[in-house]
Amino acid sequence: MFVTFEGIDGAGKSxxxxxxxxxxxxxxxxxxxxxxxxxxxxxGGESLRDALLSxxxxxxxxxxxxxxxxxxxxxxxxxxxxxxxxxTVICERYIDSTLAYxxxxxxxxxKRVNELIQWHNFPMPDLTLLFDLPLEEALRRMNARGxxxxxxxxxxxxxxxxxxxxxxxxxxxxxxxxxxxxVWSVHEIVRDIIARCLFQ
Length: 200
Known about the structure:
Blueprint: E1 2-6, H1 13-28, E2 33-37, H2 46-53, H3 60-84, E3 88-92, H4 95-105, H5 110-119, E4 127-132, H6 135-144, H7 154-168, E5 174-178, H8 183-199
Parallel strand pairs: 1-3, 1-4, 2-3, 4-5
Helix pairs in contact: 1-8, 4-5, 4-7
């Protein structure tokens, strides 16, 4: 099973992905679970991750191509081999992040970005959990952790959130989770959703 965790910064993706991996490891065995992330979730990928997260790329198409280059390596070296071995893969950020951030956030053409994604034939998630959080709460959490605001700031993140909502309305694989709840309530919801998919 291939599960992706999506949402704007501050929504709790990293925490929930780690909790989910630990829970599934207890059920299926740790050796059967792979927890990974984008960008940079492959050996040697930190240089691309640093380039993308530093904000030093000025052209939105150039930024997209770096994200796609990162995903090509990630899929080839990490995700596809794990899936072929029968592992359950949990990935923090994936294709829906590209659409939400590069199309709704950056303003790139949805048609052209979709064509690039489809052309590369990336494996599609069986299930995507979208952690939706009001912008004000996301910013409060980020400030509490001493993190800088993502890229262009509040307006940008607001567009990204709207993008995620739009994408979620078009795909049955995407389940929206209220990320404003406490950590353990969100984890319980995640467990219920994944259990229904795994054991139906």
